[in-house]
Design goal:
Radius of gyration: 22 Å
Catalytic activity: (sulfur carrier)-H + L-cysteine = (sulfur carrier)-SH + L-alanine
CATH class of the largest domain: Alpha Beta
Shape: globular
Cofactor: pyridoxal 5'-phosphate
Helix content: 25-40%
Number of strands: 17
CATH topology of the largest domain: Aspartate Aminotransferase, domain 2
CATH superfamily of the largest domain: Type I PLP-dependent aspartate aminotransferase-like (Major domain)
Number of domains: 2
Largest sheet: 7 strands, mixed
GO molecular function, one term: pyridoxal phosphate binding
Family: Belongs to the class-V pyridoxal-phosphate-dependent aminotransferase family. Csd subfamily.
Distance between the termini: 22 Å
Strand order of the largest sheet: 4-10-9-8-7-5-6
Oligomer: single chain
Structural class: alpha/beta
CATH architecture of the largest domain: 3-Layer(aba) Sandwich
Keywords: Pyridoxal phosphate, Transferase
Strand content: 15-25%
Length: 438
């Protein structure tokens, strides 16, 4: 199969070569696994990526040599743990173009979105004093999302609207899986207080026009939250250049461990937001009736932190940085194009979202006529091919596109062209196996 055209105009750097990918794969022990008698073909990195040895070693090294509570003890080991923990924050901040004090550790991106939603809710209850008044929501105010959001960037805003009396509105999706930007100009209006949207869709792969959407929000004085779960692992992202107020992403999608997520927020916003979780490690003075809170980011990090996970995430960031995010993006653009071109040649396959030539990340969700997505996934799994099936935590988007479930194949820096070709060849067998004729 010969496919050479790039998928995205963004990907102008020199792509990783096949021989470089072969060396990269040596850093990922799990890729040597056999599944059902076949070599593992892992095409589910959009859900959870695999971990290089350096990431696993970073977490193990912490437990072997520095394990102690951070920001608490006055002994040498505690100082060493705190130093490594805060160095990890600085590494992650630099990776996305942020200041160190603009990074808040969370358990995952879902918690990060909820942190913002509940902080706005607390402000709406009057917490945070005068400084937090600008965050208050009530009847007549509007929160805007899009029809393509992952549930993690939809349900928290539904709940915030219910708690505050605000109205939730959404920017619709067009038939090709892209946002209706003409409609966006009418949905985002003078009552909009917050615009929350995904940078790249986890279902259709669309890369949304951040600058255009941010401009709509800025014109009406609204805050902007960016779901960067599918962009930070795959594209060079500079949050300062994008001018978003908040951004969230998860470690487990970018070579890091589970249990660690990141909230980016502009320092001046964090300074005025009331906290969400409260308890130890985020306070200065406490009596039996009142408490005073630390400055950000510690104000938003109550309790014992995800210390080893943060350190391991920093190791993942180092790995991605050394490999080169622009080169990773360019490689995935090639793989994504190969994936889409191959899917378009298979009878009965309908790819969800924009087709060849559109700007999108290296994943594809599709429907195979006459075969349920779960049956497609099971057949592929028998051949050692791991894909995602279901609604991918995006039921409204699937409903808009006329399907209840889809099969998703997603690539990453360790994916080979042979793996994409094997997936496509095996997929061709599925419909005949189930007796479906095109």
């Amino acid at each position: 199969m010969t496919v050479s055209a790039p998928l995205s105009a963004r990907a102008t750097a020199r792509p990783l070569k096949d021989e470089e990918v072969a060396r990269i794969r040596n850093d990922f022990p799990i890729l040597e696994t056999r599944v059902n008698g076949h070599p593992l073909n892992y095409l589910d990195s959009g859900a959870t990526s695999q971990n290089p040895v350096s990431v696993m070693e970073a977490e193990q090294e912490f437990y072997e040599q520095r394990n102690a509570a951070v920001h608490r003890g006055a002994h040498t080991l505690a100082f060493a743990a705190t130093e490594a923990f805060e160095a990890a924050r600085a590494t992650v901040a630099a990776f996305i173009g942020a200041r160190t004090d603009e990074i808040v550790w969370t358990s995952n991106a879902t918690e990060a979105v909820n942190l913002v939603a509940y902080s706005l809710s607390n402000a709406s209850l009057g917490l945070g004093g005068e400084a937090a008044k600008r965050f208050r929501l009530g009847a007549g105010d509007e929160i805007v999302v899009t029809e393509m959001e992952h549930h993690a960037n939809l349900i928290p805003w539904q709940q915030l609207a219910l708690r505050t009396g605000a109205t939730l509105r959404f920017i619709p999706v067009q038939d090709d899986g892209t946002l209706d930007l003409a409609a966006a100009g009418t949905v985002v209006g003078t009552r909009t207080r917050l615009l929350a949207f995904t940078h790249a869709s986890n279902v259709v792969g669309t890369i949304n026009p951040v600058a255009e959407l941010v401009a709509l929000a800025r014109a009406v004085g609204a805050l902007v939250l960016l779901d960067a779960c599918q962009s930070v692992p795959h594209l060079p992202v500079d949050v300062a250049a994008l001018d978003v107020d908040f951004a969230v992403f998860s470690g487990h999608k970018m070579l890091g461990p589970t249990g660690i997520g990141v909230l980016y927020a502009k320092a001046e916003l964090l300074a005025d937001l009331p906290p969400f979780l409260t308890g130890g490690s985020m306070i200065t003075t406490v009596d039996m009736h009142t408490a005073e809170f630390l400055a950000p980011p510690q104000r938003f990090e109550a309790g014992t932190q995800r210390i080893s996970q943060a350190i391991a995430l920093a190791a993942a960031v180092d790995y991605l940085t050394e490999t080169g995010m622009a080169r990773i993006e360019a490689r995935e653009a090639q793989l994504g194009h190969r994936l889409l071109a191959g899917l378009s040649d298979i009878p009965g396959v309908r790819v969800l979202g924009p087709g060849l030539g559109a700007e999108r990340i290296g994943l594809a969700s599709f429907d195979l006529a006459g075969v349920h997505a779960h049956d497609v996934g099971q057949y592929l799994d028998e051949a050692g091919i791991a894909v995602r099936v279901g609604h991918h935590c995006a039921q409204p988007l699937h409903r808009r596109l006329g399907v209840t479930a889809s099969t998703r194949a997603s690539t990453y820096l360790y994916t080979t062209t042979d793996e994409v070709d094997q997936f496509l060849a095996t997929l061709r067998e599925v419909a005949p196996f189930f007796g479906v004729r095109s």
